[in-house]
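Page 37, top half.
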Amino acid sequence: MTEVQAQPSASLFSFDVDQTVRLTTVGIDIGSSTSQMSVSRIELERIDNRYVTTRRELLYESDIRLTPYADAETIDTAALGEFFQQQYAKAGVSHDEVDTGAIILTGLALAKHNSRNIADLFAAQAGTFVAVSAGDAIESTLACRGAGIEGLSQRTGRPVVHIDMGGGTTKYSYVVGGDIERVAAIDIGARLVLAADDDPRRVLRVEEPAALLLAEAGLELGAGDVLTDEVREFLAGRMAEQVLAHAGLAPDAEADPRLLRTAPLLPAGQRPDGSSLVTFSGGVSEFIYDREAQSFGDLGRPLADAVLRALRERGLRAEETARGIRATVLGASQYSLQLTGNTVYASSQSLVPLRNVPVVKPRLDLDPDELDVDQLTGAISRALATRHPDDAGVVAIALSWRGSATYQRVDALARAVLAAAGRAAPEGARAPVVLVCDADIAGLLGHHLSDLSGPAAPVLTLDSIQVSEFDFLDVGAFVPGTGALPVVVKSLLFPTPAVAP
């Protein structure tokens, strides 16, 4: 067994005499409805062998443009590239000046067949981007945190049902005591029906979820048809009803399971706490909070009006948030980097360097004296399933160790990690098992994992590193002659803006 001391690496970033790191970060959000970017500056200082964020500043918020399409299934890469080049120029920032950031593909944009090419294109142009797509769980969390909902729940002491309504999907987060307990997503959004710019009654495109809702009433709508006021109001009302039903806020309405993109927000029969606040973000929220007057040839305005009516009919109201359509992109641009030196275990020096390793943080009950392998395996498997299917290869599993390090407890955890990692791995894959521990157990756990798995699963464990879900790890190569490793934790920072009472 070999344990090495991980040290911050000055070769990764430039440090001034005060051991301060200043980074320029960019967030790019390409949704099925709109696209935008933001530029931020993050400042970190080294305190007790750890770099902590001491300042973050929003430098630039871009124009918001409708996501361009070459046809119904293809996002126009050239038009997007031109738009973002213009925004870089307006921000006064060159690509070479970008240290890190994230590109987020959201909603139905993920389903378009060239979405991966778009993500790769912008990632190559705009610095070291640590995320190139957002699955429903990630996007729900980004929207919630970017809107400051965790802070709202903490300040008020009340649960919050947060609803992010975009062009193609609606995302939910249920926040209790300042923590996101559950997330979900459904296929409801403002641009499920799109009309012509020069004729708001002429239909250009109808997405399948809208067709399903229309079919229930014996209605059909397709490209070239006329969108009457009656059909528009019916569809907006039906969509609004589903938005509240899937949030558990409309017990009088049945949630249509065909619209679900994830597991339901709450288990069957369970409702949000009666004291819960209801908040919104996303493009539709701009109409809900009366911040937008322009029509965009979609259902944004009628859908927002229908949601407000549905809330009033049930004695509810929308608590205002300071961030609406920009919630996701703001969170994406404000990255924090921790540089920390701690012990690690590596079964082979060839495992490193590793770049942009996504972190999952399973909810594990590690308090019992004897740990249940099956329960631990299930919890870790569920956490690994939150990563988007396009995330390839290595995933880091963050563990909060509790209790004594007896053989039975370490063995149970090690077997659960290997079982869950094996389920999540593609056929024939031999990706390393990467663990991040918040206690001094990496050496013991890493060695036992290696004994159990042999060469089938290379092992890297990091000790005493504080990470959150949706962080990304960079692990550098061993420093010659020292046995040291540089470890960088890239964390999404989510501001807590002022929220109207």
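Page 37, bottom half:
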Amino acid sequence: MASAARSATVRRAEGAIEVLLAGVCGRAALTVHDPLGGELRFDRRGGRVRAHGEEREQWLVAPLAGGRLLRVEDRSYPGRLRIRPLAQGGLEVRAVVDLEDYLAGVLAAELSVWSAPDALLEAQAIAARSYAVAELEHRGRTSSSPYLFDDTRDMVYRGEPAAPPPIRARIAAALERTRGTVLREGARVLDARFHAACGGRTAAGRSVFPESDFESLRSVECAPCREAAPEQWSTTATRAELDLLCQEAGLAAGLRRLRPLEVDEGGRWLAVELEGAAGRARLDFQTVRRLLGPGRVRSALVSGTWPQPGEELRDGLLLRGRGNGHGVGLCQRGALGCAERGWSAERILLHYYPGALLADGRRP
């Protein structure tokens, strides 16, 4: 079940990749179960990892002969698990998984597969494959062992899809129809970001991710999302949470006013101005979302506040908005509407990533 570890390689749009299992990283001990019978407990011993009485710098755990899954808590993972000491303490756990098996888990987690038209499944598969390959290539320039997070820092991945056979069959079929296909911009694979609902117009990539230099991540109209019932949200930031924003911006506690400082053509707040007793400071709105929680501030498309923007704050701040996600690239709600109107996966992708081209990512 366990063996000495060797590095996995990233091979274009195929082969094994590594995915950090963020929810279990940092644990002092971890138990890995094999469905065919077998269990290994790992724990940290100084700068090494111990299992069944043996200490190593790292372990690469594989399923027993005849199996393909390993279970960690309530999730099962195809492939292998890499376990080693985490620099900050505890254990680091990565899934070493074939790219297509990883994408199957991403599609199951990111979409309502049972109701998704084939064109949407295919478009999502190509976008997710492109994002994974592009990010791993980018991170591989500064790391000999690049990885993806299993949460919204990259794409949500919960391991083997826990879904009925018909759902798993639809995912497998969509992946097979698009196998190896990625979006390219020039010689590079496109960092094809996507989100749940744009609210009517997607965001320009650079406005949300300043490090992005892809021309295809531009703002486009999204009629199906605009015409659908709006996905609305609201939340109230407490005085203590507003003080956290001040701290992040380098201001003393005691936020007096908050107003939008930069707004894109679709109405998204890109940056806000914070005013405190000792002065004013600028803060990116994506930082505001991160600090208050992206599950609460679900987008940057703010439709209103109370008190009104720029008015004096007293106990807290109510934020209202619509849409869900960062707004860049493919809008899943809009793409669903496009697919229902008969658009092909290619047409959907070239609408949300204008200027990109479909290509076989398995070739140089």
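Margin note: The CA atoms of residues 194 and 330 lie 4 Å apart.
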